[in-house]
Amino acid sequence: MKKIMILSVALAFLSSYGQTKKEDTSIKQKTTLKNETKMNKKILIIVSNANAIGPNNRRTGTFLPEVAHPYAEFDRANYQIDFASLTGDTPYLDALNLANDSDNLAFLTGKGWEAMQKAVKLSTVDVSKYDAVFVPGGLAPMVDMPENELLKKVIRETYERNAIVGAVCHGPVALLNVKLSNGTYLVNGKNITSFTDEEERGYAIADVPFLLETALTKQGAKFHAAAVWSAHSIADGNLVTGQNPASAKGVAEKMIIILESLKK
């Protein structure tokens, strides 16, 4: 009788243990699936290859906080972050004097700058696999992005498939001259911002080929400007823009909010 009771208890324990293991495995699988789902959000950061601008060959590049701050936000969201440049050559950074900022320093000394230096040529990228594209500023985009046909095609196709398009400061020059399939300018009727004419007059008026705010407005943009150098970002559907370096974090935050809402 004792042997029968011991056997019954053992079988009950094994059954319970097996059920617990199944539940544990199920929880782990769900957690893994959740993490994989979140990691599946993919961001492509498209950067300029220019390193000089204007008649005096002013040194330039991607403005450090405009790539480092969004990178930090996307990384904290556990997104996959890849880099592409227009030519595939190593891009340049500007404003390295701001490296004492924690996110800027982390970008420079961590995996961010390492990944950016390995930016692949945009023409080799299947952009349709990305949930969002982001274009940081600095004066560099004003050199090689206003008329780049491939970039305009990438922006148009990304926007028209309802993926997110983000840009900050001079980065919205990537939106300039983009025509949608219906022939209208992408920015026409859209609420957007960028580095303002007022900011440019106090920063690089002698170097830039044109004033970005004016150019975007001429193509029908509903332009919104905040006080000079203050943080200001705006979302209009799947288009997110920021005014200046202080706005880069806000652009990324708004992009993340939209991306996360798409999961629900």
TrEMBL record:
Record keyword Protease present: yes
The UniProt record lists the keyword Secreted: no
Annotated family: Belongs to the peptidase C56 family. HSP31-like subfamily.
Keyword vocabulary terms for this entry: Hydrolase, Lyase, Protease, Stress response
Domain DJ-1/PfpI: 66-254
Any GO CC annotation of this UniProt entry: cytoplasm
GO biological process: methylglyoxal catabolic process to D-lactate via S-lactoyl-glutathione; proteolysis
GO molecular function: glyoxalase III activity; peptidase activity
Protein name as catalogued: Putative intracellular protease/amidase
Segments crossing the lipid bilayer: none
InterPro entries: Class_I_gatase-like (IPR029062), DJ-1/PfpI (IPR002818), Prot/Nucl_acid_deglycase (IPR050325)
Domain of life: Bacteria
One Pfam family in the UniProt entry: DJ-1_PfpI
